[in-house]
Amino acid sequence: MKTRLLVLLLGIVTTVPLAAADAAAPAALLNRGRYLVEGVGLCADCHSPRNEKGEFVTAHWLRGAPIGFTPAVPMPVWAPVAPPIAGLPSMTAEQAVKFLMEGTRPDGSMPRPPMPAYRVNEEDARAMVAYLKSLGDAPAVGAQP
Ligand code: HEC
Which domains does the chain possess? Predict the structure, then answer.
């Protein structure tokens, strides 16, 4: 009887903090992902549209934008548009993690410049992908509100 009570008490003591930590994990992961996307990767520089004053249109945050500059020297390939990455509509979470770690798309191809070839570690990639996926599906590039 005493043993059972002890097991029960131990169960309560050990599961309560663990459950609390689990509930907190997604928020911490999303915050880290947001920090890496907004503060380190500066993904919005290319993937978010701007208004005529050059300010971000926050209603279309990370929902794709035309690239506002051209290369000074001829480039064999160049992408004039950065696609939407809010919700990462073109990839599953696992494919996007691989893309940020290795720079390859699901079909093995590399994105054209000026998309930088990021080589982040798995932990950072998972946080970035969790944040981007949390932004939901994006409308097509150029879609009006
Ligand atoms: C300097 C501009 C620039 C920056 C900064 C940038 N991107 Fe891109 N990104 C592009 C362009 C342009 C493309 C389209 C490439 C193509 O069409 O081949 C692209 C493509 C992508 C794709 C789509 C790949 C596909 O084919 O489906 C993803 C995902 C992506 N970027 C994620 C990011 C993330 C995450 C960041 C920040 C960590 C980021 N990008 C920062 C310009 C940029």
Answer: 28-134 (1.10.760)
